[in-house]
Design a protein that fits this description.
With 138 residues, the protein is mainly alpha-helical. The protein has one domain. It is 46% helix and 0% strand. The model has no long low-confidence stretch (mean pLDDT 91).
Length: 138
């Protein structure tokens, strides 16, 4: 972004933009590699740009978002439960996937690591909060 104002740090984060942020973080910071053999076919992304479709596919192939799903919900706003799950998957893969409440163990692990302080699952994420948590996670 050319200015901090254009970055809209207080703005709500959509799933498609989280996919872009998390793919870049996972690949450039964590050194993760996508599983290009993994099929990721979402029925609701036809209106997205080619660039964003690429990030959606990579988020799925990295095991971060859209795993075992046919819809991605690109315009949906991101909750703490969703972001915490995605960030936890970047670090721990599917270690916490087998719980009844999909996000509970992911959020607790991030809180224990000092990355997330508030584990209220319904909290809507902002771009600024995501950036802060990614900095803590380094």
């Amino acid at each position: 972004m050319p200015t901090i104002q254009k970055a809209d740090l207080g703005g709500k984060l959509t799933r498609v933009h989280m996919a872009k942020m998390m793919v870049n973080y996972a690949v450039k910071v964590l050194g993760l590699k996508p599983d290009t053999s993994k099929k990721c076919d979402f029925k609701d992304i036809s209106n997205q740009s080619a660039e964003l479709k690429g990030y959606i596919g990579l988020a799925c192939q990295l095991g971060l978002m859209g795993t075992n799903a046919t819809k991605f919900n690109p315009s949906g706003t991101v909750s703490r439960a969703e972001f915490g799950t995605v960030l936890s998957r970047a670090f721990r893969g599917n270690k916490y996937e087998n719980t009844k409440t999909y996000y509970k163990d992911h959020l607790q692990a991030l809180k224990n690591a000092g990355i997330i302080t508030n584990i209220t699952s319904t909290l809507k994420e902002t771009r600024g909060n995501i950036m802060l948590m990614l900095m803590r996670a380094k």
